[in-house]
# Entry
Amino acid sequence: QVRLVESGGGSVHAGGSLRLSCVASEALSGRSCMAWLRQQPGKARERVALIVSDGTTEYADSVKGRFTISLGNAKNTQYLQMNTLKPDDTATYYCAAARSCVGWYFDYWGQGTQVTVSS
# Structure
């Protein structure tokens, strides 16, 4: 069982930046992918950004141009650089990973990290 541990959440003012990290207990081989999703109270979990092991990325329209997903050198770490944060970005952010990337379907999930953006 792969464990995912997120860090980097916190509280910032609108326009600020945060960088989320997610470390997997083991590197995933093959065409794996890692992603960030988020959930606001009372709402469904929504996609934020996804990165495939070959470097291909996908972003939700709401974060394009503001958020950047990347992989660490060890390939078991991913990052989400979040710039120009808005109050609507307030949510619990979850790290997810899949051994074989087939869209937004994941085998493993982190516990989540809270991001709060005040106006």
Q: What stands out?
A: The chain has a mean pLDDT of 95. Residues 47 and 60 are 6 Å apart (CA to CA).
